[in-house]
Amino acid sequence: MLSSPILVSLALILSLPLVLFFTQQILPQIPFPFSSPDAEDLALFHRATHITNHLSTFTNPKPKIAFLFLTNSNLTFSPLWEKFFNKNNHLFNIYIHADPTSSVVSPGGIFQNRFIPSKITHRASPSLIAAARRLLASALLDDPLNQYFALISQHCIPLFSFQFVYNYLFKNQLQSLANFADDFNLRYPSFIEILSDDPNLNDRYIARGENAMLPEVTFEDFRVGSQFFILNRKHAEVVVRDRRLWKKFKLPCINEDSCYPEEHYFPTLLSMEDPNGCTGFTLTRVNWTGCWDGHPHLYTPPEVSPELVRELRLSNSSYSYLFARKFSPECLSPLMDIADNVIFQD
Q1: Per the record's keyword annotation, is Glycoprotein included, yes or no (predicted)?
Q2: Contacts of 78 (CB under 8 A, 6+ apart)
Q3: Is 3.90.1570 the CATH number for 61-343?
Q4: How far is Cα 170 from Cα 164, in angstroms, rounded to an integer?
């Protein structure tokens, strides 16, 4: 006859499934394998950084540019971008992150079905970083031929034709495609502004608290730059793979007047990871003359002219600007008037 201790043990084993069942009904459910509210993003980022690019399966592969549109309103300038992209479908892809609370309507055409799963974005919050990372991960997963990733605002316009932009980024470096997958990232730099001498650098650094960024990011490592960039594939993977710096930059700010996480995270991360692989310059022109409340100058229809386009192309560095912002929606008509004869005449 079985002893009492054995019976007790057997009863406990048999009752274990019932205990688990009722526990699951009472306790809140925790998503697996992540317990974070960012679980969907983490799963996406994991997939994007664990894919194998089989470029050798393509015949004479042509690298593509992934255009990443970050918007919280309708893409007013889509007709201008349609002209820009015209007849080059094999050389680019489009991905759109639209704030789900903003009721953005698809402009159709080449933008149709190019919206990725998106989340709410706010100024002075890390949500804009998360949105850009979402776009990068989606583009990495979607097409192994995406080798440059250009982050674009709904207020951005092109300053040259697509062929000019494409050749500018890949100029004189498309030979030796047999080694495309191996040495691409050594031959094509990323275009991202990286500044260490901003007069408000200290205020921006301590926006989350005096020592909130330590030990991962020291003040000496902290950088600022433009929100908009063009990254090569290697650096896009660096951004999507990062967990270490992200846990610092996603902290809420105490001083919102100095809190522009999207202008800090990307230049700081890439400066720490691969400074020699970045030019340190952005290719998107922004006019900060007369800026207000953290917003750059907003161009209006009377300012649109051939002279303005030519002026916006010019840079103090050896690089030309390829895009410009910030343009009011009313600028579409005058921009379309000069598109064929000025903007796309390189």
Answers
A1: yes
A2: 107, 109, 111
A3: no
A4: 10
